Amino acid sequence: MSAKLPIGIFDSGIGGLTVASAIHKVLPNEELIYFGDTAHLPYGDKSPKAIKYFSLKIAQFLLDKQCKMIVIACNTASSLAYHDLVEFIGDKIPVLNVIDPVVDFVAAEKQLKCVGVIGTKATINSDLYAKKLKLARPGIEVKSLATPLLAPMIEEGFFSNTISKTVIHSYLSSPKLKNIDSLILACTHYPLIQAEIEEFYHEKVTIINSAAIVAQSVQKKLAELNLLSKVEAKKHQFFVSDYTSSFEKSTKLFFGEKIHLKLKNIWS
User: Fold this and answer.
1) Could you list the residue range(s) of the whole structural domain that residue 220 is in?
2) What is the reported pTM?
3) Residue 86 pLDDT > 90, yes or no?
4) 32 in Cβ contact with 23 (< 8 Å)
5) 101, 213 in Cβ contact below 8 A?
6) What amino acid positions are annotated as catalytic residues?
């Protein structure tokens, strides 16, 4: 397999662009092909069967684009569809999710004793973070809370304002998160409200942003497989399953630079 081939990344919407941006910063030579399933967002309130179906169709699209790796930049899809994708793809190319690298990171941080997790209903209901963390480090306490309004709120551009502050305060004030010393942002949209979350906790709680952690994991895996690109990347490609001008405008907030979204129907 050629190291010049692109990395495929997908999410339920454009939140996964936070992961794509982090990968781009760590690996500037890598070409990225991104697919945001905006026609079906949010995945958090979809059935496991639907999420697996969407994920498999997107994976096939990225395989057809000759990607050398697929990164599931969505916690919900990582929770419910990762093993199906691995089985579907086999040993053709590596598949990375956004959960395992974060679990490994937290497990290694011995000073963290009581970890909070916020994410979509599907991610939290899967209880995967709690199960994996307790398996990796027995004795750690994990407190989970579904925060279903946050992803669609962010997708619509409502953050760093009165609305987002009210919603965030309401969620983080929940007794379910009492006495945590760290908080995993178990949704790739959430880095865009990290500053507001830190403000709520007055920086007394360690906020764990998965994007940078996942990017390091991608770099490590490609290095192991001798697939790190040594030449300057071609232009990145960004696809969505449903297009609106507001989505394209907001991509700069997620990716750090203006990008052009291409509409692609992979369902027919």
Assistant:
1) 7-97+212-263
2) 0.91
3) yes
4) yes
5) yes
6) 74, 187
